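FIELD: query
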Amino acid sequence: MIRPPSRETAPRAAWLDTPERYGRVSRGFHWLMAALFAWQFAGALLYVTIGDTTLTRLVGGSHFTLGFTLFVLVLLRGAWGLANRRRRHGAPGRAATAGHALIYLLMILIPSLALLRQYGSGKPFAPYGIPLMPARETKIGWMMLPADLFHYWLGFTLLAAVIGHAAIAVLHRRLWNEPVLQRMT
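FIELD: result
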């Protein structure tokens, strides 16, 4: 017989993942990161469609800082997810595992390349006024090259993966009547 949580454990349980639903921390990470990625993608799409304008500078002006923020959040979210993996809904299918692995790989790789390029550029980097990389007089070309070649394309690959991720969550509900999206809302 399954007993309801006691009054002492109910508030704590709301923060943790359960087989029925993701906890507040997981949902907070997910939706905060979704909003920040939406802003990042909006800036990139505006830049690609209308070029360097006042609007793209307004939206894209936070790209470096938000990219760094997302990098920190994905590391924290990944650690939280690993700590909660035994509490979650059953084993995901192969497609779900592969899709999530691709998204996490891209969420780590893209800002890693950007940070490598930033360091190689010799320009200072101080997100939120916190000095992480001092200015240097010389550039390090090999550090800049990978991001110059791949950051843009991997970013749009991530956008496609995120759109697919959202579409699959909706399809699970509409076609198979599985409450996948409800576990994250």
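FIELD: remark
The chain is about 70% helix and 0% strand.
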